[in-house]
């Protein structure tokens, strides 16, 4: 029955995607999608975010992170969460795409591309010179998707991260 419903949903997608800024009412859907993404990335156990945290970070007095959602038949089926960066060399802001996720049963219909295109429009309209993100090396479908849009890996850069005990130790040294 589930496969039949998914098949019907796939066939019914023929309208352009509805991309919009997220609202506080979208927070439960965004958290659900974050959990789906984490599960796909084999890291569901690492999700600590709560609806309250997302609501405050996205819609509080001074938000530093932003989100767009994509709707299908009035239901949120994907999201892009992002924040501003700054290039000292270019002297301009950029967008860092923290997460982009579209439910598996509606992939292949342009929803991910529409979300990413919206971010590129924002960057272009505001004079930002880049949109960047990280992707897991084993995620070949995502890599293929990004490269099909013209994105290229930045192989000369390696990501470093301080977290947990190492962060605490560094902060107190």
TrEMBL record:
Key words of the record: Acyltransferase, Coiled coil, Transferase
Q: Where is the N-acetyltransferase domain?
A: 17-172
SUPFAM superfamilies assigned to the protein according to its UniProt record, in alphabetical order: Acyl-CoA N-acyltransferases (Nat)
InterPro entries in alphabetical order: Acyl_CoA_acyltransferase (IPR016181), Diverse_Substrate_AcTransf (IPR051016), GNAT_dom (IPR000182)
Respond yes or no to whether keyword Acyltransferase is given for this record. Answer: yes
Q: Which residues cross the membrane?
A: none
Q: Which residues form a coiled coil?
A: 30-57
The answer to whether UniProt assigns keyword Transferase to this entry is yes
Please provide an example of a Pfam family that matches this protein in its UniProt record. Acetyltransf_1
What is the recorded name of this protein?
A: GNAT family N-acetyltransferase
Q: What organism does the record attribute this protein to?
A: Actinomadura chokoriensis
């Amino acid at each position: 029955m589930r496969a039949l419903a998914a098949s019907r949903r796939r066939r019914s997608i023929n309208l352009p995607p509805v991309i919009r800024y997220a609202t506080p009412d979208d927070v439960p859907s965004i958290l659900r999608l974050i959990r789906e993404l984490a599960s796909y990335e084999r890291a569901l156990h690492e999700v600590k975010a709560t609806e309250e945290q997302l609501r405050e970070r996205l819609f509080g007095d001074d938000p530093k992170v932003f989100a767009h959602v994509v709707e299908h038949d009035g239901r949120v089926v994907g999201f892009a969460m992002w924040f501003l960066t700054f290039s000292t060399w270019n002297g301009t802001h950029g967008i860092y795409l923290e997460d982009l996720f579209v439910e598996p049963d509606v992939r292949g219909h342009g929803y991910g591309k529409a979300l990413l295109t919206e971010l590129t429009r924002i960057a272009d309209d505001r004079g930002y010179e880049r949109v960047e993100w990280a992707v897991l090396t084993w995620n070949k479908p995502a890599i293929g998707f990004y490269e099909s849009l013209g994105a290229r890996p930045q192989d000369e850069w390696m990501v470093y991260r301080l977290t947990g005990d190492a962060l605490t130790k560094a902060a107190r040294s």
